[in-house]
Amino acid sequence: MIKQLYSLIQFDEAVKTMEAGADNIGLVPMQNGGVPAHRVPLERVYKIHDEAKKRGVKLVAIMLTNDPEEMLQLAEKVQPEILHVAGDGYAATPEFAKRLKEVAPDTALMQAVLVDNETAIDRAKKFAPFVDYILLDSGLAPDTGIGASGKTHDWNIDAKIVESVDVPVIEAGGLGPDNVADAIKKIKPYGVDSLTKTSIKYEGGNMEKDIEKVRLFCERADEAAKEIGL
Ligand SMILES: O=C(O)c1ccccc1NCC(=O)[C@H](O)[C@H](O)COP(=O)(O)O
């Protein structure tokens, strides 16, 4: 079971998050979009990425800009293992996927799908032929895109999506140590993602990972996956 932890800001917390069991670490490279306090300067992104590569951990670069050209420029500079498109005004297309392969041949494409109702099933099916991963998430805010809501959604829809697409699905939205096992047993995803419930949030949008909660999240995810043979 892949455990994906967002949103890393500092180098030391990224290291501790990897030590606590993360397989994928997500961050927001400096761009025109998202919560200003979550954006990471490129020099630090490179340092975190070098450390992640040494540990066999994948770096996920989250795109909250709505400008595909800016996304492609960032992908070319960072060469992340995964590019996660989550803005509220732009979703990946087959043409974008093709151009991403040209500028970052080893970067996989992950598209966020907002699970607000049953229409999410058809939206996920449309992305599946040309993306490498689908991330199912909750909450859409005009300034920050899809996600980071700390809220769950209807897991019955997610379970149907997992059954109907051929690409790996990462489950996100309000997951933490308290409910990750239930989500895995119900949805049977390829991976699980957590931001809010494994972070400490401060005034002004600042936050840091709560390492004990990250550890518990990873342990409980692995236990649940093992229990059901995933
Ligand atoms: O990581 C961010 O800073 C971020 C900001 C705005 C939208 C999405 C963002 N991250 C995407 C993620 O994959 C989150 O981990 C996912 O939305 C789950 O968030 P949460 O419900 O808070 O666990």
From TrEMBL:
Pfam families: PRAI. This is N-(5'-phosphoribosyl)anthranilate isomerase. It is an enzyme of class 5 (isomerase). Its EC number is 5.3.1.24. It catalyses: N-(5-phospho-beta-D-ribosyl)anthranilate = 1-(2-carboxyphenylamino)-1-deoxy-D-ribulose 5-phosphate. One of its GO terms (molecular function) is phosphoribosylanthranilate isomerase activity. It comes from the Bacteria. Coiled coil: none annotated. Pathway: Amino-acid biosynthesis; L-tryptophan biosynthesis; L-tryptophan from chorismate: step 3/5. It comes from Lentilactobacillus kisonensis DSM 19906 = JCM 15041.
